[in-house]
Amino acid sequence: MIRCLVVDDEAPALAILADYISQVPFLTLVGTTTNPLEALTLVQQGGADVVFLDIQMPKLTGLQFLKLSGHRCKVVLTTAYPEYALEGYENDVVDYLLKPIAFERFLKAAQKALALFPAAPAASGLPAPVSSTPPAYLFIKGDTKHKYVRVNYADILYIEGLSNYVSLYLPGQRLITYQTLKELTDTLPHPPFLRVHKSYIVSLDKIRLIDGNTLYIEDKQVPVSETYREQLYRLIREK
């Protein structure tokens, strides 16, 4: 579990993010506070892995908090002011969420954070062991509100983009979720996943045959575009 702390000088904002955290299986809430100095103390003691941090606060702004925290935690900035985005990313934040924050957008930030914690700490607060093993799964939005489906990377054959939707093809199963192919590309580990066409991502581990500009995965054929062909063949040669 990834231990989360929410810092905001507005109580309603704390409540919303606390609720969002409770709905994501790999997150656990260790606290909420309107006092950034109190939050800074907790972070410096190693009490949180990710801080959802407002920027405009009295006593200590979110950007000042970032500099004082000494990178002891990962930070997701939350604010109503887009003009701070560049400075936030220059300080190596995980993500930058603009208020009002939709749950879907929050979940995307949570998945970015998950990718930075190969072995997330248990809820007990014990530190995570050092590991180079990448996360083995992701969560995608299901067909009803607040429904999220865990998908193991090892089960994914290939992914097809359909405008603002994507279809994930697994053995004997197809899952459709509201997300762009580019957003999913940023989430998946590279390799084994590789974009081979404007509409397709494949798992290199699942390719059984390459014939020119066509990949064969189980009984399906996936096209390879000229844009991505050189990268594909380079990775194949390296293997």
Give the integer mean of the pLDDT values. 83
C-alpha end-to-end distance: 34 Å
Per CATH, the superfamily of the largest domain is Response regulator
The tally of domains stands at 2
Q: From the helix content, strand content and strand pairing, which structural class follows? A: alpha/beta
InterPro entries: CheY-like_superfamily, LytR-like, LytTR_DNA-bd_dom, Sig_transdc_resp-reg_receiver
GO molecular function, one term: phosphorelay response regulator activity
Protein name: LytTR family DNA-binding domain-containing protein
Modified residues (4-aspartylphosphate): 54
Describe it for me?
The protein has 2 domains: 2-115, Rossmann fold (3-Layer(aba) Sandwich), CATH 3.40.50; 142-238, LytTr DNA-binding domain (OB fold (Dihydrolipoamide Acetyltransferase, E2P), Beta Barrel), CATH 2.40.50. Helix content is 28%, strand content 31%. It contains 7 helices and 15 strands. It has a 5-stranded parallel sheet, sandwiched between helices. A 5-stranded antiparallel sheet has the order 10-9-8-12-11. It has a 3-stranded antiparallel sheet with strand order 13-14-15, with no helix packed on it. Strand 6 (137-141) and strand 7 form a beta hairpin. Helix 2 (36-44) runs parallel beside helix 3 (62-69). The radius of gyration is 20 Å and the shape is elongated.
Write a brief caption for the model:
The protein is α/β, with parallel strands linked by helices.
Topology:
Layout: E1 2-7, H1 11-22, E2 27-33, H2 36-44, E3 50-54, H3 62-69, E4 74-79, H4 85-90, E5 95-98, H5 103-115, E6 137-141, E7 148-152, E8 158-162, E9 165-170, E10 173-178, H6 181-187, E11 193-197, E12 200-203, E13 209-211, E14 214-217, E15 220-223, H7 226-238
Helix pairs in contact: 2-3
